[in-house]
Specification:
The complex is a heterodimer of chains A (108) and B (241). By secondary structure, chain A is of the alpha+beta class. In chain A, strands 1-2 form a two-stranded antiparallel ribbon. In chain B, helix 5 crosses helix 6. Classes of the chains: A alpha+beta (108), B alpha+beta (241). Chains A and B meet through helix 2, strand 1 and helix 3 of A and strand 1, helix 1, strand 5, helix 2 and strand 6 of B.
């Protein structure tokens, strides 16, 4: 009758390797910044921030229709190529728009 | 069998090539090339553009990255770029051929890195030579927007200049307050770098920022060159708004 070899104790479970995080570099953890900004730039949300920045704010504009909806309610419909973009871009566009000169009213 | 939709959802503009695309888009249909001269739009037949959701943004980014691996020069399209039919898409490509060709030549063999600098106070040096008058509010604003007077950015720039990998740079200063003289600004710098050099880029930024006080940085990338795709269609269409 063969004797069973003594069981080796199970190896301690190692923590799962984390995907390489976006490196953050020395410096204070943004004490001067409002919590929202600091949170957006945390590693977890940063990819979403970059995605939104890159895909909605950048890139070739061809042409498009987009309906912005919230909870099933259509809020904004845009036919023009300036689809979804950051507020400062909309501001720039408004500044850049040429205004028609206003007619002077004749006063009696 | 249902007929293919006439609409074309555009993912990117590339130099017209003969190689077949073997990828499916967000809507599950095989991507097609719509050629016009030397340009081609990589598009998916769709009835309407996809909903702007995080899942769709991720899917589009994955797809554009995949396309970028197969093309030396690619101009990613902004999310939601949709043409009603092939004719409309061709018309856009024809009208903008010169601009798009120049942009394609610029981004050939490159990728984009996003560098965000978070500055304390206003992060500007504010140092003035004696004898030169202090700049006015407008000048300060324009200089801030261009990223001048940022010691952290200047340090990163000079370190990267030694590597000769940066082909182009775009700087945007975002203020966390409504004031234009920039309190606690977040500065985003988009760098167009040679493909395959993102590790060098990161390492250089890490080393440089280690000695910079009053600023911290977050790097992401490599990305397809989103920030270097021409957006002048916006200008062309502003008058319509």
């Amino acid at each position: 009758m063969s004797r069973r070899a003594p069981r080796t104790p199970p190896l301690p479970r190692l923590p799962r390797p984390r995907p390489p995080a976006t490196p953050k570099y020395p410096g204070p953890p943004h004490p001067a910044h409002p919590p929202t900004v600091a949170r957006l730039l945390q590693e977890r949300d940063q990819t979403i921030l970059d995605l939104v920045d890159n895909l909605l704010n950048r890139g070739v504009v061809v042409t498009g229709d987009v309906v912005l909806a919230l909870a099933g309610v259509d809020l904004v419909y845009l036919r023009l190529s300036v689809l979804l973009c950051a507020a400062d871009r909309v501001g720039e566009a408004r500044v850049g728009r040429r205004r028609r000169p206003q007619r002077r009213r004749r006063t009696a | 069998m249902s007929a293919q939709p006439e609409g074309r959802y555009v993912y990117a503009i590339v130099a017209g090539g003969a190689r077949a695309l073997r990828a499916r888009g967000i809507g599950g249909r095989t991507l097609v090339r719509v050629r016009e001269g030397r340009l081609a739009a990589v598009a998916e037949p769709m009835v309407a553009p996809p909903n702007p959701s995080v899942a769709c943004l991720r899917a589009q980014d994955r797809l554009v990255r995949r396309l970028a691996r197969g093309h030396a020069a690619i101009l990613p399209a902004r999310f939601g770029s949709f043409a009603r039919d092939v004719r409309e898409l061709r018309r856009v490509l024809r009208r903008r051929a010169a601009v798009l060709s120049r942009a394609l030549a610029r981004v050939r063999g490159t990728e984009q890195m996003n560098l965000r600098l978070l500055l304390q106070d206003n992060g500007m040096t504010g140092a003035q030579d004696r004898g030169t008058p202090a700049p006015g509010k407008g000048t300060r604003y324009l200089r801030a927007r261009a990223g001048h007077d940022l010691p952290a950015l200047a340090a990163v720039r000079s370190a990267l200049a030694q590597l000769s990998i940066v082909r182009a740079e775009l700087v945007e200063v975002h203020s966390t307050s409504a004031r234009t003289d920039i309190a606690n600004p977040v500065v985003t710098i988009y760098h167009l770098i040679a493909r395959g050099t993102s590790r060098k880029y990161r390492r250089t930024v890490v080393d440089t920022m280690a000695s910079e006080h009053g600023a911290s940085a977050v790097v992401s990338g490599p990305w397809p060159p989103y920030a270097f795709a021409p957006a002048d269609a916006i200008a062309a269409r502003r008058s319509l708004s």
